[in-house]
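ASSEMBLY PREDICTION REQUEST
Request ID: AP-0331
Submitted by: J.K., bench scientist
Number of chains: four
Total residues: 1749
Priority: normal
Notes: Please return the full assembly, not individual chains.
Input sequences:
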Amino acid sequence: MSIPVSAEGWRKELPASVTRLGWILLIAGVAIAALGYIVDARRMAFDNVIGYLFLASVAAGSVFLVALEYIGGAVWSVPTRRVNEFLGGLVLLLPLIALPMFFHLHDVYHWTHEEVVAADKLLAGKSPYLDVNFFVLRFVLIFIIWSLFHFLFTRNSTKQDTTKDPKLTTINIRLAAVFMPVFAISLTLTAVDWAMSLEPHWSSTIFGVYYFSGTVLAALSAATYIIIKLHESGYLPKLQRDSFYSLGALMFAFINFWAYIAFSQFLLIWYADLPEETVWFMSRWKNGWEYVSILLIVVHFAIPYFALLTQDSKMDLKRLKLMAIWILFAHLLDLYWLVMPTYSESVSFSWTEFAFPILLVGLVMVVLSFKMRRNNLVPVGDPKLTRGLSFRL
Amino acid sequence: MIAPLYDTRQKEAVLLSWIQGKDSYKETIYHEYLMAHWEKTLFPSFNTRTEFKTFWYSALHDGVITLDERGNGDYRFKGEALASVVPASFQGYVVGLTQSYYIGDGAFANNGWLQELPHPISKVVWDNYASLSTKTAKDLGVDMNDRIEITLPQGKQIVPVFIQPGQADGYISIELGYGRTNAGPIGSDVGVDVNVLLPKSSLTGSRILGGATVAKVAGTYVLSTTQEHHSLDDTFVKDLHLKREVVREGTLLQYEKDPNFLHHEKRELFSIHTEVEYKGVKWAMAIDLNKCIGCNACVAGCNVENNVPVVGKEQVAKGREMQWIRIDRYYSGTADAPVASHQPMLCQHCDQAPCENVCPVVATNHSPDGLNQMVYNRCVGTKYCSNNCPYKVRRFNFFNWRDHVAEGYYEQEPVNLMHNPEVTVRSRGVMEKCTFCVQRIMEVRERAVEQGIPLKGSDVKTACQDACPATAIVFGDMNDPDSEVAAYRKHNLGYHVLEETNARPNVTYLAKLRNIHSENLT
Amino acid sequence: MKEKQQFSLTALFDTPDEIIRAAHETRSAGYTRYDVHTPYPVHGMDKAMGLRQSRLGIFVLIFGLFGAVSSVLFMTWVTLVDYPLVIGGKPFWSWPAFVPVAFEITVLMASVLLVVTMIVLYFKFPNISHPLHDTPYMKRISSDKFGISIQVDDPKFNEREVREFLYKIGGKEITPVYFDLEDLDHGQTMFDPKFLGVLALTAILVSGATYAVFNQLMFMEPFSWMSTQAKQKAQRPSDLFKDGIGMRPPVEGTVARGFLPYLFKGKPDEAGKNLVNPLFATKEVIERGKATYLTYCSPCHGNFARGDSRLRGQFPNPPTLHSDKVRNWPDGSIYHVITEGQNVMPAYASQISRDDRWAIIHYLRVLQRAHNAKESDLK
Amino acid sequence: MSTAATDYTREFPVVEGRPKAAELDATIAAPLDQFPSRVWWIAISITLSFLSIGAFCIGMTLYEGLGLWGVNQPVSWGFDIVNFVFWIGIGHAGTLISAILFLLRQRWRTGIARFAEAMTIFAVMCAGLFPLLHTGRQWLPMYLTPYPNQHGLWVNFTSPLVWDVFAVSTYFIVSAVFWYVGLIPDLATLRDRTTSKIKKTIYSVFSLGWRHSNRHWQHYERAYLILAGFATPLVLSVHTIVSFDFAVSVIPGWHTTVFPPYFVAGAVFSGFAMVQNVLIFVRQAFNLKHIITLDHLEKMNKVMIVTGSMVGYAYAMELFIAWYGGNQFERFVFLNRALGPYAWAYWTMVSCNVIFPQLFWFKKIRRSIPAMFAIGILVNIGMWFERFVIVVTSLSRDFLPSSWGHYTPTLYDAGILLGSFGLFFTLILIFVRVLPVVSISEVKGVIEGGQPSHR
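STATUS: Completed
Returned structure:
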């Protein structure tokens, strides 16, 4: 089978309308967020945490998916790897999203209040870790690590477009091997810092894995949606049903994985019934939060589970596209459910919640069009590309 | 009081029949003699208007009579009398021989229940030993379970070593009553005979003997204890019972200033699920740590009431003692001046018992009156309940103990007659634990039903409560607001052990108050 | 010589490519009763043969849902309806704890029934014999060849045409396959004595073994059911004591707590003189006395102590208790009679507790008063 | 292929060389046709003597009682549950290879799947032995199943041990069914190969009349896919439920939410180590080096680094959250593990599970048979000690310092452990003689030229 491997054959820009829409959404999002900070800074700061965690999911998750492809020796995802690489570029924008939050740490994190910590033996014991300077330091370190790996992966990958050197693949495989443990720790710390420490008395050892399951889902869904959209618009014409099936199957697997982790956490805490642990679930089971909790189960598990259960549904592009969007929304809901009960004891919803989703959608569109202008949409130099394009189950 | 078993005669009856001549023996001979003696000597001095029989029966019923005896009225402490007891100075090591707490001078050596009662302080069972202070042990170069030879002019004996924090330096105390060679299947060859150290002249005199020479001898002898020993200066485990709020203590001064001082850091307890409601009687116990003297009478009482098996020394060493209630002893402070705390620990009959959840066969579950009940016949013995019990008060029959100990001694006639017919005799492979003397509860309940009156919690007395000489244990219905136990539960000093596990125990402890202010002990 | 009938015409092929093409050709030629045999699943064969996708998925969905629903319903019934027990303070219906079992049952039902369905429905188990078995054709297929077999019952079947067709599409070793008619008819009856004998023998063996294991073996040492207890059970005899009574009476001459012996044995006068009713005539005491009286006394003395019960005539008649004698007796005398009995009246000491006896006396006094009411009472 | 820079443009042949399908039949079926060699007889006599030692210890335990073991108060679970979790873990590799790798379309699984599945079944048999034995009254196992009885009593559906009963029995049944379904075509091949009449009858019966018909293959493949789809969550659920045995409790060191995924990772980790160890012998003994290639072993070693690192992550997470959570009991337990009386077990576990497997980062070690064998053994030791650390250290020092105790296993404990290994390897030795250790039909499908070039 002959594959066009000339670099030009694969570089295509997104239409200007997409870029324009991206900018409009981005600016609108920023405006809403700014307004939110003016009107209700505390609430906006919590929304900012959600926004940050969401972006971190998509960005770091995409870097992870790139690394996973290398380390797992997967071929089916080679033709679409660039999408993950592009989305991975979002890690560079993480500080921008996080920045406003840093000015409102006091509103969000209970442990930043020195007088509270001094009066609370438990929090005092955690103060070496839950410390503003250390928090920022961790953020910076994690940002550097993610950016570095993203940079190295993409640099080698793009270099390969011209050199076609299989050694670059070998280097990336080794890098991916190093990245995996680093990613595990950094993502866990992100989850602990940004989400778990919202309720500083509470802790759960599985929390990092829980956030990881959502992260992979979010990154995968974002990529899936973009890939299908590009395929439908003629950007990736050579893709076969088998590749989409793999995306769908992976999505289905991680939906189950998320449910498995979430249920394990719940069952163990419910069963032992220790007040120090149950308090976290109980605050999510009263004052209206119980409806959000139920909604989360339905939205994040039940519906996507049955929607993607059969073999055919995983190859149905329309359904896959819908489910990708659906799961992105579910992940947002998941983060909302994780973060917002700390903000208010009773469930509440406000326009400020829209700021970051709009902003982030715009951001993704802008970043994508920027990247697509400068890069090949397909890693034309990758030695596995031919196999990837002819991948059959 | 038992009627003669087999073809036996009471020793008094034997003596009497010798005095009164041939064919005078009958079973009641001593009884009649005793009654006649009382009628003649004691009864007239009472000068009551009742006849002798009434007097006799009421004396028997009460168990005591009050004699009009007055001393000389001088109750001052006579310091000089000490001189006759304790010599002014000792040479070398001093050996103190004391009666055993439980088997006395050895008369009860054949009673397994008593042999297996842990020593109130050292928690050693089935043995006597030379108790040394930490410094003395260091001087002698011995450690726990080493053996030393004690030589006195009148004899010598090799005794295992036990290091006892708080013991006076240079002083070695050993219990008498052990080392009997012919005491029956249980009591023979238990411990060492230190009677050989007693001078003939001192059999009735002082048992504090100076001038002993002590030398370490080769070999070890392993003592069995029911509680592990942790070094008092190991910061890792030191004072854990206080840090974990297992034993809570305060000072009298503290209490006077602020009666609620225990509960300032209020722990909020709630459940993720709806909690079970108990209407009607709900059993609960309260234990006042101020009153508890750590004597183990409750343990003995429980053993007898509930057919608790004897397991023997080796099994205790393995950690398989079966007592349903135990007295935990904790040290705090330093090895030279330790502070000991006692805490009776038994099944807490938790409302949200972690043991119940995990039993696969529902052999342990909750009764409508709040008892954590154990169904022996359903139990398959997974031991999961014991693992999940925060208090580790469940006991497992690793063997058929009665068959296993002393060649089935406890299964033979007539020893088996001593088992309480109201309580199941457990066999191997089943878990058991404190039942709050459910058989006694049922008895009171039956009586209440029979008489058509409501069950009154305070009518039930558990065996440990009955046995407690200090009335440290209170039992009753916590839903009865007037009951003593309800008052204890509401007491300022009341607390539950390991509250944070949310097990909701039904045994309330009253924190110990130490009056250390006046003695300036801190 | 058994009668043989042709089953099909078979042809062998060497490579997967050939067989795929051959299958395709066969289908295009319009044959319907044919089959392709390959030693392992060859990709794309389903398409080449034009087979529809297997329906097993639907079965699995049904089995799985059945497992999930039935297990949850069962656990609900057990914990809510049949035997609700408080376990560890958890609610009776602890749904999170049901999830693991429900999941396992779902998987078990779905996967085992799936395989059973496949074997029975598609592999036609237990009817597993087939004409192709034991043919040289099958032996080659089992090893490394690929084959097509076009059956005789195909509407388009024609020996010559098919042979030519197979040859045309590259088939080698084109051979017919035959089968025995007798094999098909070789049915077995239910009432074969041998079969019945085996059944009977199995039944005897199984029931015997069950009985031996569960009623004999399992009750021997070392298996313990705690049915023998090393203690003197209530109401059981004992070999140890000469009188054989296991539950020992208190030793003579002893006094139990709360039980002073009755001091006026055989001395009714002294009892009357010395005993005083320790209870006050409160409403509760009288109620209690009434209940006890009606239980123990009324059968003879009558509900109103008139000595007019149904038992009249069967014994020396029980007297009325309204006689002057009884009315003027001190309480102690009545107590004595209840305790010790009188004439034919037996002692009630062991049936009626002491307090109850005194309560009866109070009640009796009430009856007596009612029977001889004074005028002042009427007011 | 190990010399030059790796060629990414083509898929590696799963089977080395270009064996013909018929040759495969002969190679794989060879052990079934020959009289067992002397090595085999020596091996089985060793394993049978281990088995009889175990049988003796089990018999004595049944007769005398659990007191023969080292268990006590407070450590009521000892070797029994350690071994149970260990063996269940060993079993997980088989299902992972046969089901999860099947779903992931990893063709290299074909060479080892059959063997791994057999190991799963044997390991589950060994594992199942221990929960039965560890109960005090071993003659009452039926009490753990909900059957209608005259007491009117059911089981406690909130008990993890009941979940275990369901999970382990489901796992065993489904694994056995999965294994058997995989065997059907091979049995048919054997039926058509053999010349012995008895064998032919047996194979005929168990091959259910299989005739390699594509009309059957079609359903067969579908069923196999669905079974794999069920086996995957099932295998996760089994070790998850085993982890629940500990994690639902309130005992510090047991109650932690990361246990489910951590146990699953650990199970796969130890299972792969065991499969790798045994396969090294099998490929040698039965001339299967071209079917079970060095690539297979290397891939398994890679899986071991991944799962080993997951286990390491869980250790780190437990330590971190024990500190972060601020619960003094948790903090104590983890300090006690690292520094207390069982520190030796803890450090054995950490070094064997986290440190030594890191050597697999080096390709040379990954492809060196002696090195990987040694590391595989170390991993199995480490994983056994992991369960020991979890079970024993947590129990020996829990809440009340007064009830602390020490656990010392007895010879009976050791004997039964030895016996379980005896049982496992005896079953394996019998298996390699009576059934094809490699799936004939699956391997035929992945040899070069095994599939049509155009579709």
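REVIEWER COMMENTS: Confidence is low (pLDDT under 50) at residues 1-8 of chain A.
SIGN-OFF: pending second reviewer
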